[in-house]
User: Fold this.
Amino acid sequence: MNWNIEYSKRADDFIEEHGIKDVVRESIKNFILKITGLNINIDVKKLKGEWAGYYRIRKGKIRIILKPRIESKSIFVDVVDFRGNIYK
Assistant:
């Protein structure tokens, strides 16, 4: 299960600033397990409209917006931020 995970500059800056790399990695790992068919308890929502094709992971007050590319086994993490700032 080797997946390539890419981070946008905005997401990478937030992760480094708040020291949450392990939390984000664990959430993405659980997301991968969920989309590959395992029954994992993770709060994931498929987004609509402007964010079509993206998913939101909710982890406490933090939100992770990502876009999986299942065929190439890669994930692009677009935004990681607090709940109130995520869609701005």
About this structure: The mean pLDDT is 93.
